[in-house]
Amino acid sequence: MVPETRYARSGDVAIAYQVLGEGPFDVVYAPGTVSHVELNWDAAGIAALLRGIAGHARLIVFDKRGTGLSDRDVGVPTLEERSDDIRAVMDAARSPRAALVGTSEGAPMCVVFAASHPERVSALVLYGGMARPLWAPDYQFGIPERECRRLIEKGAEAFVTPGGLEAIARSGFRSAGEEEVRALARIIRYGASPAAWEALDRMNMVIDVREVLPVLSAPTLVLHQRADPWVPIQRGRYLAEHIPGAVFVELDGEEHLLTAAIARQILAQAIPFLQDATAREAPEPDKVLVTVLFSDIVGSTARAAELGDAQWRQLLAEHHARVRRQLARFRGVELDTAGDGFFVRFDGPARGIRCAVAIRDALRDLGLEVRLGLHTGECEALDGKVTGIAVSIGARVSGLAAAGEVLVSQTVKDLVAGSGITFADRGVQQLKGVPGEWRLYSVAAV
Q: For a FRET experiment, which of 96, 143, 145, 265 has its CA 20 to 30 Å from that of 386?
């Protein structure tokens, strides 16, 4: 029986999801690039994995925005937006806390969500995942960008080439039978259009969650096939080495996509791990991935002297009201207001940038110029407040911004890659009281 397909609302986007099983803990399954919650059940490997998990837990499965039965016309969704879809389906399914199982590109989605919402994640299982796909001097088992772009073009061509999608499927699991190959080709064909597939591939190309890995606190199991034809095993090892306390298990196979045999291998490792991890008492999260925003009015002292106390208080009240309207719009959480400045946290950097730009633009007709700075990093969380070096960095970045400028750290820029936000390089800067050198960027367009 195929479970009933339901819909969750993630902002303005409808996300298709299903719920099955009645176990003692919840699991959310985050698929790879393309899925289809109803056709998944025709693919032996995917169905075996999902039914195997549902035999021990309450399982929530979904199609990411832009794919499957979820809303399609959503532009090119960022990793931040796709991770937020996990929150949406958990809320819709009334799941306050769940383990996350992410395969392939679903792995970095789970990483971002678990780091941003540690109180909602009991455990992580990552199969065939990676922190980033592209080569870098300190990540030499990535693929060169030119080669990656060639593969993206080849994938788009497969949609209009007879047998092309079957060839893609066959390249992802060497030992699969023809029925499994055809089933996966159908999922790809019905799960995305040619343009959507290409756009998703281009978005996935720029994923980089390396800075997020050390923030994770949930018990984590990393599984990887020894001869994975799509994602070299070194990328799985990198995940495990950089996630605190992660367990790495090398599976004896040469697959990436899920066959029934591979599903059994995954379940043999994942089910005992999940049962043990979810049975533990949930600790109070002591660290969380946060985007911090600092803002202040340029030349406020001179403006206050020019207007006088009464008029300045009125202007400042209107400033505060307009800032708070934008915070409500972009889910910013006000942490402190000191004089004419705001200290705000966000659970996503792209949302923080767009809020900063909206604040700047909303204040211009008041004759006020503001400087705004953002940084994303690990913070200590206590009673709704956040502290730590990431907060200090955000404040220092703001202090270097010019009037009317939104200035961000390299980490923020990397995490919003593929969002359409563009930047101007402001060069390497010293941040007072913060070790090292920091490359900063000015937001050019959103």
A: 96
How many other β-carbons are positioned within 10 Å of the β-carbon of residue 141? 14
Determine the distance from the C-alpha atom of residue 116 to the mean position of all C-alpha atoms in its chain, rounded to a whole number.
9
Q: Is the Cβ–Cβ distance between 304 and 368 less than 8 Å?
A: no
Q: Which residues contact 288 (CB under 8 A, 6 or more apart)?
A: 115, 116, 117, 118, 215, 378, 379, 381, 386
Domain 6-279 sits in CATH at 3.40.50.1820
Q: Which tens digit of pLDDT belongs to each residue from 32-89?
A: 989 999 999 999 999 999 999 999 999 999 999 999 999 988 877 888 888 999 999 9
- Percentage of residues of the chain with pLDDT beyond 90: 73
What is the residue-wise DSSP string for 207-241? Answer: ---TTTGGG--S-EEEEEETT-SSS-HHHHHHHHH
Sequence spans of domains, the chain: 6-279, 288-445
Sign of the CA dihedral running 337, 419, 68, 144: negative
Q: By the 8 A CB rule, do 105 and 131 touch?
A: no
Count of other CB atoms within 10 angstroms of residue 374 = 29
Q: Is the pLDDT of residue 285 over 70?
A: no
> Is residue 165 pLDDT above 70, yes or no?
yes
Which residues is 250 bridged to in the sheet?
224
What's the per-residue H, E or C state across 158-199?
HCCCCCHHHHHHHHHECCCCHHHHHHHHHHHHHHCCHHHHHH
**Span of 221-230, 286-295, 349-358 with lowest mean pLDDT:** 286-295
- According to DSSP, the β-strands at 26-30 and 370-382 are unpaired
**Contacts of 421-430 spanning 24+ positions with Cβ under 8 A:** 421/350, 421/353, 421/354, 421/445, 421/446, 426/400, 429/400
Residues 6+ apart with CB under 8 A from 251: 223, 224, 225, 226, 262, 265, 266, 269
In this structure, CATH architecture of domain 288-445? 2-Layer Sandwich (3.30)
DSSP 419: S
Nearest to 312 by CA among 298, 300, 297: 300
Compute how many other C-beta atoms are within 10 angstroms of the C-beta atom of residue 20. 18
Query: What DSSP string runs through 86-125?
Result: HHHHHHHTT-SSEEEEEETTHHHHHHHHHHH-GGGEEEEE
